[in-house]
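Supplementary Note 2. Why include the ligand at all?

Several targets in our set were suspected to adopt different conformations when bound, so apo predictions alone were not considered sufficient. For every target with a known small-molecule partner we therefore ran a joint prediction. The input for uracil is given below.
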Amino acid sequence: MRLPESLAEEGKKRIYSYPVEGFVYGEGPDTPALMLVGEAPGETEIHNGVPFSGRAGKELMSFLDRLELTREDVYITSTVRSRPYRWGEKKSRNGEVVKRKYNRPPTAKEIVAHAPLLDYEIEHVKVPVIVTLGNIGLKRLGGANKKITECHGRFLHQPVQRLGKDGRYEWTNESYLLFPTFHPASIFYNRGLLDLIHADLAKLKEFLTR
Ligand code: URA
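The joint prediction is reproduced in token form.
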């Protein structure tokens, strides 16, 4: 499934005024084994044009290995398709201070700007389960009151949020199966989460092979 060009262009316009760069399409077959919804691309993804092709992507591929799936079996997308950045300073090897862009989480406005893109994918890609990675994807689809620490590793059968014509989120009529787990990048900051993620993936595998 490829997002229609007109919708991609609309998304680029809607996010244009925010500090973001690049644009990465979701990727995967029309009837994948599952859909993965991340946060936003980083520097590597913007460069390659491929979602989860950087450091977090390497971890994500090890998650898929545990499910005995490959990248080609699943639909991979993100809540926001452009890389949100902030300017920061870094000392280079010769001691010179250089300005560079750092990744940051997307803001609520940036998430709304790209909401029609994810809404389209949710509607058109038929999957038995939508795996949200981290808090951003979980709250965007499952509702702002959801927390990854409470919801991870549980199947949530419920409507999802989509952007209404009035610019506010509304609930879909249809129910979906959500399975929240932690974002693969979370283990860079807290290695202890890996055991929880592995337990979540074991549950998900049981569901997929039932
Ligand atoms: N994190 C995401 O959520 N998406 C990517 O493509 C890369 C990192």
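The beta strands are 20-21, 35-38, 75-78, 83-91, 97-103, 130-133, 156-163, 169-181. The first strand starts at residue 20 and ends at 21. Comparable summaries for the other entries are listed in the accompanying table.
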